[in-house]
Design goal:
Layout (H helix, E strand, L loop, with lengths): L1 E13 L4 E3 L4 E2 L3 E18 L6 E4 L2 E3 L4 H17 L4 E8 L9 H16 L6 H11 L11 E5 L8 E6 L6 E7 L9 H6 L7 H21 L2 H20 L10 H15 L5 E4 L5 E6 L3 H9 L6 E5 L6 E3 L5
Parallel strand pairs: 5-7
Antiparallel strand pairs: 1-4, 1-14, 2-3, 4-7, 4-8, 5-6, 8-9, 10-12, 10-13, 11-12
Bound molecules: (3R)-3-hydroxy-3-methyl-5-(phosphonooxy)pentanoic acid.
Length: 328
């Protein structure tokens, strides 16, 4: 009744922002992402008849049952318990190898790992598609951390039809995401709350009208492995996402001055001939997107940026998997 899973976070090239259905986390639009090799959550789950309530420890800190984090984990465990016909409470211990809550999508890796560890500990044997649907109920973007490599989340319009699939395995394309960490400060507004504001932007209908064709365009670019076209589109998409956030009520500004500095540097480096582009999520850290051959030149330049606190170099990765090394 004990199982451990390790799951990657993922970076969306075409972003998920806004929900058709809040409870089922059915997104307004599809999204495209890549699993990240160096942003990982490991989670061990053990169900036990001796526990009176679920216990949660994340990165060495235990969360009381009435905390937001524990509430979300228990709600997710309840879904798995219901499916497995199980009433036992669980001990959950989770470890991130990167800062959480700063826009590096720790909820994606966290809920992917929790889903797979808890399902295995409960004795459920579920298909990849079923695991992706389940992970989505915990955190939307978590459904994309289940399949391998480059992934598409098919938005669907029901629980059954909304899940993620692998488009290409990790070794299909040598894309690298160098995460430039500029601060480990936690974000003020969670992406769950931010997403609720998406529709209040007057530009949201414009975004939705453009997104279907945009997904088709990026899939064509990925099929051709056309990096400059890919980078241009990914960067423009990030700007468009932030245009929605900036113009929502409440208006959301996730960037720090350091984030903007890096975005401007990326454009400067590009003008100087370095093929690098950026994307940004709900946080201050900037994801620098390039191909593997460019990484040494890019990291050289980043060394000279005083605002940079940490660099995390990610290659495309496989999705969630069960491992034998339990955390307790
Ligand atoms: O799954 P959530 O609620 O953490 O939302 C993720 C939102 C973005 O990171 C901004 C976009 C995305 O598709 O990952």
């Amino acid at each position: 009744m004990k199982a451990t899973a390790v799951a990657p976070s993922n970076i969306a090239f075409i972003k998920y922002w806004g929900k058709q259905d809040e409870t089922l986390r059915i997104p307004e639009n599809g999204s495209i992402s890549m699993n990240l090799s160096r942003l990982l959550t490991t989670t061990t789950v053990q169900f036990s008849a001796e526990l009176a309530e679920d216990r949660l420890t994340i990165d060495g800190q235990s969360y009381p049952p009435d905390s937001i984090q524990a509430g979300r984990v228990t709600a997710h465990l309840d879904r798995i318990r219901r499916r497995a016909g199980l009433s036992e409470r669980a001990s959950v211990v989770s470890q991130n190898n990167f800062p959480s809550g700063t826009g590096l999508s720790s909820s994606a890796s966290a809920f992917a790992a929790l889903t797979v560890a808890a399902a295995a500990a409960a004795g459920l044997r579920l298909s990849e598609r079923e695991l992706s649907r389940l992970a989505r109920l915990g955190s939307g973007s978590a459904c994309r951390s289940i399949p391998d490599g480059f992934v598409e989340w098919l938005p669907g319009d029901s629980h059954e039809s909304s899940y993620a699939v692998s488009l290409y395995p990790p070794d299909y394309w040598d894309i690298v995401d160098v995460v430039a960490v500029v601060s480990v400060e936690k974000k003020e507004v969670s992406s769950t709350r931010g997403q609720q504001a998406a529709r209040s932007s007057p530009f949201f209908p414009v975004r939705l009208a453009r997104i279907g064709p945009k997904i088709e365009t990026i899939k064509g670019i990925m099929a051709r492995r056309d990096f400059p076209a890919f980078g241009e589109l990914v960067e423009a998409e990030a700007i468009e996402l932030h245009a929605i956030m900036l113009t929502s009520t409440p208006s959301l500004i996730y960037w720090f001055p350091e984030s903007l500095k890096l975005m401007r540097l990326v454009r400067q480096w590009r003008a100087e001939g370095l093929p690098v582009y950026f994307t940004v999520n709900t946080g201050q850290d900037v994801h620098l997107i390039c191909q593997k051959s460019v990484v040494p030149a890019l990291t050289d330049r980043l060394q000279d940026v005083p605002e940079l606190q940490q660099m995390i170099i990610n290659e495309p990765a496989q999705g969630v998997r069960l491992i034998d090394a339990h955390l307790f």
